[in-house]
Amino acid sequence: MKSHHVRTRGSAEGFPREEHLAWKIAEVATDPVEVPAETEEMVINRIIDNAAVAAASLTRRPVANARAQALAHPYDPGAAVFGVRGTYSPEWAAWANGVAVRELDFHDTFLAAEYSHPGDNIPPILAVAQHSRRSGADLIRGLATGYEIQIDLVRGICLHEHKIDHVAHLGPSAAAGIGTLLSLDTETVYQAVGQALHTTTATRQSRKGEISSWKAYAPAFAGKMAVEAVDRAMRGEGAPSPIWEGEDGVIAWLLGGPNAEYQVPLPSPGEAKRAILDSYTKEHSAEYQSQAVIDLARSMRTKIDDFSQIESIVLHTSHHTHYVIGTGSNDPQKFDPKASRETLDHSVMYIFAVALQDGTWHHEHSYAPERAQRPDTVELWHTISTAEDPEWTRRYHASDPSKKAFGARAVITLANGEVIEDELAVADAHPLGARPFVREQYINKFRMLAEGVIDSKEQDRFLDAVQRTRELCGGELGQLNFTVSEDVLGRAPKTPKGLF
């Protein structure tokens, strides 16, 4: 890996295009290096993971609405939309599938200077692959790039510090991945990356306060914009440049300011793309920083005979966990029993309370209104607070994957003065956890979430196809979609018609 120094450049300063971060990203995307076997293995795991969480969210209102929008744009050749037959305009298929994948906040994650869900790259890159009749091998190469670029940007550039939503790293990565997929030239990918960044940079209010369904829509929008950016760039249209380093660019006005400096690592020429191997998926449908907290609560509950005797719980954790999903956010909504599912998902206090009481976590039951409003849960919930611990913050930002941690130390004080204390650094499903996810666990997750949604024969067909991704030829990538019955689709709420 080579570290690239990135800073604002004055308009009069000599700054050749070949030094722009967008150009360096485009060079990585157009490098014909082979995909390592272990990267390919993980790419397939994440295609399975995305399909699993899409199946579980298929009948939720935001997903049904996004699907309805896509179905209003049939196209031949086009791309597939989860749950239905037919083909649709690829940018709209990317949109609908992106919402389905993100709705439950249940797929993969990578956390460093910024945070991300790199699996958000899959819907737009796969949609373009289906539409353009590319092969499975092409798709794997494109996804390896999408993951690489997003994870490398996340390693080097913090967005949330400046209240910019993390999907600002997704637009460029998806555009780069599509560029690899289509074997585009460096100039075209450079322009597409710049356009994608320019059109997907927004504030992070989508993840603050009373969180709405836009939390799921935001990455789908970034993926859709990436598809459109590539289309325009292929037609010869350009982008604002230098998009990151310009005097009126992203760094100068949206991030650290004219004097800020960043170090972004990218593969050197001929170096394989392995970043996906540093990412991790979720066993539980909740914000990633709460994965280890759920597992910690499940283990600590056996030490408590009567939850009503709990006087206080303090979760000592990282800066990010404390300020984003903890009491450091100062969001009263994180203690509101009538808050939206999206808000509860971003309340580590609620999550610890329910996991402590139930000893389990479920993507629907754990968020149900009757569950959130249970009086004993509300009482326990309000005893919980978070505190930033410098050591957990240091481990959160550690560059060594073996030392990186996203957990917490829980201190439970009972009414009689007894203190129960324990900690967990990484979730059980993490590569360094007690039960790391490998292909078997990804398939089990798919089977569990597809139960009652996708019939068993269709599950078998999908799993067979996805595990043969490299062998699939042009025109066969539609097999990486799944369909469901009209009865299943009928479970989705009826919603008003929009413009389409």
TrEMBL record:
Keywords: Lyase, Tricarboxylic acid cycle. InterPro entries: 2-Methylcitrate_Dehydratase, MmgE/PrpD_sf, MmgE/PrpD_sf_1, MmgE/PrpD_sf_2, MmgE_PrpD, MmgE_PrpD_C, MmgE_PrpD_N. Residues 19-262 form the MmgE/PrpD N-terminal domain. Residues 284-468 form the MmgE/PrpD C-terminal domain. GO terms for molecular function: 2-methylcitrate dehydratase activity; aconitate hydratase activity. It comes from the Bacteria. GO terms for biological process: propionate metabolic process; tricarboxylic acid cycle. It catalyses: citrate = D-threo-isocitrate; (2S,3S)-2-methylcitrate = 2-methyl-cis-aconitate + H2O. The keyword Lyase applies. It holds the Pfam family MmgE_PrpD_N. Pathway: Carbohydrate metabolism; tricarboxylic acid cycle; isocitrate from oxaloacetate: step 1/2; Organic acid metabolism; propanoate degradation. SUPFAM superfamilies: 2-methylcitrate dehydratase PrpD. Belongs to the PrpD family. This is Aconitate hydratase.
